[in-house]
Design a protein that fits this description.
Helices cover 81% and strands 0% of the residues. By secondary structure, it is mainly α. The longest helix is centred in the C-terminal third of the chain and has 57 residues, at 183-239. The termini are far apart. 28% of the residues are buried. Residues 218-223 and 226-230 have low confidence and may be disordered.
Amino acid sequence: MELGPSYAVSFVHSLYVTARGVMHLYSLWAASNMDKIYIGPEGDYREAHLEVARTNILFVAYLFYDMIHILHQYPKLGGGDTMAHHMLFAFCSVINGTFGIMPFQFGWLIVGEMSTIFLNWRWFLLKSGRDSGVLLENVNTMFAASFFLTRIVMYTAGIGHLYIFSMSELKSLSSLEVSGVPLSALGITCGCMLLGWLLNLYWGSKILRKVARGRTNVTVKSTEPVAAKAGKKNRRSKRE
């Protein structure tokens, strides 16, 4: 249980930021595309934008803390893919927080932490000796379902909205009259979001393979008693 404190911090953090991510999505849902993509100095969504900025500061602080912890315990808390994920989003958060961009996009990105809640819950169940049973199965199901809902479906929808329906607003962000973010920094943060999307697709494919293997094992186990009974019947009929 030496890793317990790290998982406990991750569990509390994921609960808190997921709740705030849902709040950000709700508060900015009806906003214009420009208000979804840029935190202006004033406007109807000023308070909602400031709430996003507060969550972003908390999120960046946690990412740096977790990266240090991962490196210290490497590879017990995660491998290279986890470090890549953290570095990508820490970099995005620093750029976006500095220039006040992507508040709505931050909402659907941070909601992806929902799956981390169940991942940590699963770890606590396994370490407490409850490595089988209905509760573990339900937690595994909730982890997979929340991952695909937030990190695949919602993330894909968000990427589509950003690059298809908000392209003109996205291009205007580099203007000095708007955020003044350098094109290079804007390109990096947009690229990081795309790389994060690809990374989630990669993780999702791994989860699907594990789910498929689990179902195969269940099918094999459920047919073994039937096969055994059939073998016994065949042996009896031969003796008779």
